[in-house]
Amino acid sequence: MNDDPSNDDVARNRWLILGLSRLAGVGMVITGLLVTQGAILWPIELGYALVLIGIVDVFVVPQVLARRWRSPRE
What we know:
Layout: H1 8-36, H2 44-59, H3 61-69
């Protein structure tokens, strides 16, 4: 695959990665909340860790990736 940022396939794949990152983060937050409420019988510390990691995955990771993949200014 060509790594040219103007390539439509590369742009589509990067957009999918950003969306999947957000979706995975939401899944982690929901799972962590279920653990902290006792609906899933895992250690409560794991629940808090999942919530924290999920929040970072939803808000921080896509921003970092988008900044890294941004086209250079001309």
